[in-house]
User: What shape does this take?
Amino acid sequence: MHGKIKKVFFRVIHYAIMVMIAVLMLMPIGWMLGTSMRQSKESFVLPPSFWPTQFNLDNFKQVFHAIPILKFAWNSLFITFLAAAFMVLFTSMAAYAFARINFKGKNILFIFMLAGLMIPIQSIIIPVFLIIRKLNLIDTKWALIVTSIYYPLGLLMLRQFMMTIPKSYDEAAVCDGAGKLTIFFRVILPMSKSTIMVAFVMHFVSVWNNFFSAMIFLNSTAKMTLPLGITVLNTTDGNSNMPLMTSAVLLTLIPPMIIYIFGQKYLMQGNMISGVKS
Assistant: This one.
């Protein structure tokens, strides 16, 4: 009996700690939600209140009149989906080569590929800009798509997972007359579905929130993405409508949340899978 009480006590403590952590993590979202429903004059009142004294849901309606947010959303969706799709295609093929094919200098080349994790885009933006300008892609959506395909973290994840797949699958496919491309598309790729989905969701969120590259490569308002487009709401006189901007930011969170909800099953599978046994 004493052991059961002790077990229940520690379980209650465990859940209490988890709830506290969840509340702390959700507080920024709660603050944004409260700010989005304030009157504009309440934004700079001291001391600030967590929830508004008067709820104003018209801020969300005003966003659609203040900026072409649906156009910005379409631009972001077009760029993000294509960039993530191309990333999955090329990254999975590169991961297959590094994991399943032996060639000279493979390990050294893989290290150079992973070096991209340590190089921020800000440090190489000048040569990247010159290349994009040479390709006549400045102020086009393809400038953001082309520069977002490379994803070294996805390469690492897929390569490590493909290395856990037994070689017996390749050998059986070769006995049936399959080549490397057939093995990749019909054997390895379906087995890597969960890891691919994890990489897709992570890269989707990264590209969706990409403000720096959009600011560098895009000039026309009609081609702006959501992170860049909502800056139009900002003013230069210091009298920005903070509730209006916060409402716009909350609207930008909807597509990544939908992608996460639909991909949650694969994300959980990707966390649980530690290898494949023959």
Summary: The first helix runs from residue 2 to 36. Residues 274-278 have pLDDT under 50 and may be disordered. DSSP finds 14 helices and no strands in the chain.
